[in-house]
Amino acid sequence: MTTKRGGTVIPIFPCKSIDEQLAFYQALGFELTYRQAKPNLYACVRHRMMEIHFFVLKQLEPSNSYSMCYVSVTDVDALYKEFCENLKRAYQKVPSKGYPRITKVNNLAEDRRFNLIDPAGNRLLIGQKHASPGQIPNDRNDEARPSKFSNAFETAYKLAYAKDEPADAARVLDLVFSKAEEAPVTLRYKAYVLRADVAASVDELHTAKAFIEKAEHLPLSDRELEEVMEAAERLNELKSNMDRD
User: Fold this and answer.
1) Gene3D superfamilies per the record (predicted)?
2) What is the value of pTM for the model shown?
3) How distant, in Å, are the alpha carbons of 31, 32, 50, 194 from that of 190?
4) Fewest CB atoms within 10 A around its CB: which of 80, 120, 189, 243?
5) Which domains does the chain have, with CATH numbers?
């Protein structure tokens, strides 16, 4: 990435296999710009949005990786579409579980983003800042005064989509579902869809189907359906993916 004063910051990520790492990034659409065999394995790839370097760390376990980098882009949806199309051509599918994987694009308070996790567990947080600082999408404003349920939903949403920690997101939601009837129907709908999405991401398909059914059985007016449009699209995508599986 380029700094305001013209300098460039380049992340250097560890990996277990240079070949596996390069194959993934080239599948995404990155260009191999350098490869070194001696005195140690090292490689560089470049995309118009970023440059990344790799070195080998044989004892690395992807599930224990803490390496990450935030990449600020001007059109996150276009880049997400490009990466998904390239991955589908290379792998005949878009990997959404395990290593590597790519998450959906989601709206957070600070930005709209998706996460890209490579074969070594390195994480690229790729986001586009909202036009106004702190802007929160309209369909996330369910209550003027946040309740315990709404706070739990916001926390779980961040855990699931900003931090990619589905198990923690599930625990947060499960603790407050006993109070679901006290929450607005639109918030309940979004919480059920989020819980279903989290369950599907870790192959808990029975749980995912149960929460999809809960969401679909909620009575929503036309106005309320407009408020949960993003969640409704996610629910339909979940159902489609589960039917294919």
Assistant:
1) 2,3-Dihydroxybiphenyl 1,2-Dioxygenase, domain 1
2) 0.77
3) 39, 41, 34, 6
4) 243
5) 12-127 (3.10.180.10), 137-244 (no CATH)
